[in-house]
Design brief:
Strand content: over 45%
Number of helices: 4
Radius of gyration: 21 Å
Length: 406
């Protein structure tokens, strides 16, 4: 299968926050045991096996509406430092992932409607591995270095979190794209929690590292950085998190390594010749209801706006807004309803106009997740999308998703 147009905005991802990370493991190294004193036992690795299956169809005039099946297997392992001879202020994070089968990505809109089947790649049986080492100090400050799957961070977002395996399936919500911060990232992430805010600084290779170690030619195209601050705020006694994020890279031109041929800069065109990319993101996650009979459960609203100069970043202005959370009468279930709008750079659209017409992509998504048993959750998902490809009529993406955790 040829590369889907979805790659234009999806292979590189926006920079999600994870306010809950302030509660990270803050254990520290133990002193040598005194004579006659038993040293505490080593911690055991924390391993979770997740099997996710997708069934979906596209409904639009002129396309094949057959149901397509695909899936993925993820293993999330956190290995305490004491297991490998370090102290337990260190953690080794290992995430192997295997994707297989078919998807309906690219049939309706440009953004993937099944994020879980878009990575590591959008077709066939594909494998990838993320590996990083994290050091956490007593203050809660942490430094993580290595290859990181940013979807794992997005899964921890309050209200909207899921990362495509849980929650929303469209990339617009699962991992809002920026085309600046890559989804699979080689770099270092510093997180500093304080009483009044959570600060982050990421330094990374701007080239996506899917199915690469990241050490083949690190930082050969430049360097990227993200700086953000997240403020915890209570409204009406309900917790909320409000973030400002600045990101950019020094690379020249757009991320051509992930763009299909039809969306690469036109030779001699006005788009894609500049060096340096930058963006500003404003994001909010606010709980509106908490359930007294189900601690930790509730629902809320979320939103994000993205701004870029649009050259050489293929996106210029984008926004999402929605509600999501746990169901009051069945807090083990989950629901969501949200809207998105994404815009390609005006310069890119003008350069490509003689070949293909593009406009803003807009859509809505709704889902309901039913917990059938503790390890099994089934989601019904429906999306209505008006594609960025001007010649396409709006259409529907309808799907089922089953997640089994061990």
């Amino acid at each position: 299968m040829s590369v889907s147009p979805a790659a234009v905005v999806a292979q590189d991802a926006a920079d999600p926050e994870e306010p809950g990370e302030a509660a990270a493991d803050t254990s520290v190294a133990l002193p040598p045991a005194a004579p006659g004193v038993t040293q505490p036992a080593k911690k055991e690795p924390d391993v979770e096996f997740v099997w996710t299956q997708f069934l979906g169809t596209s409904i639009r005039n002129g396309i094949d509406d057959r149901w397509r099946y695909g899936g993925r297997v993820d293993i999330y392992a956190k290995v305490p430092g004491s297991v490998i001879g370090l102290d337990d202020s260190f953690t080794v994070n290992i995430h192997p992932e295997l994707r297989y089968g078919q998807s309906i990505n690219g049939e309706i809109g440009v953004l993937p409607v099944q994020t879980g089947l878009f990575y590591p790649t959008d077709d066939g049986t594909q494998f990838d591995l993320s590996l990083s080492v994290k050091k956490t100090w007593q203050s809660g400050t942490s430094l993580e270095v290595g290859k990181v799957n940013v979807l794992d961070i997005a899964a921890g977002l309050p209200v909207v979190g899921g990362g495509g395996i849980e929650g929303f399936e469209n990339l617009a919500f699962a991992l809002p794209p920026s085309t600046i911060v890559p989804q699979s990232m080689l770099g270092a992430m510093l997180t500093v929690p304080t009483k009044g805010a959570l600060y982050r600084l990421w330094v990374f290779d701007p080239v996506i590292q899917t199915q690469d170690t990241g050490f083949e030619s690190p930082f050969s195209t430049g360097v990227g950085a993200l700086a953000s601050v997240t403020f915890p705020v209570k409204l009406g006694g309900k917790p909320g998190y409000y973030a400002i994020k600045l990101s950019g890279t020094t690379r020249k031109g757009p991320p051509v390594e992930v763009l299909p041929a039809a969306l690469r800069p036109v030779p001699g065109g006005s788009f894609g010749n500049a060096r340096g990319q930058a963006s500003v993101v404003l994001a909010a996650y606010q709980y509106l209801g908490l359930y007294k009979d189900a601690p930790g459960k509730g629902w809320g609203a979320f939103g994000q706006v993205f701004f870029s100069d649009g050259d050489p970043t293929p996106l210029d202005v984008s926004g999402i807004f929605g509600i999501s959370g746990d169901v009051p009468f069945r807090p083990q279930d989950h629901f969501g309803l949200a809207w998105f709008r994404y815009s390609l750079s005006d310069k890119l659209v003008d350069d490509l106009a003689p070949f293909v017409g593009f406009e803003d992509e807009e859509g809505v998504e709704a889902f309901y997740t039913l917990q059938v048993a503790k390890p099994l959750r089934i989601t019904a998902d429906v999306q209505y999308i008006d594609s960025t490809v001007a010649g396409r009529k709006p259409g529907w993406a309808v799907g089922l998703r089953a997640v089994t955790r061990f």
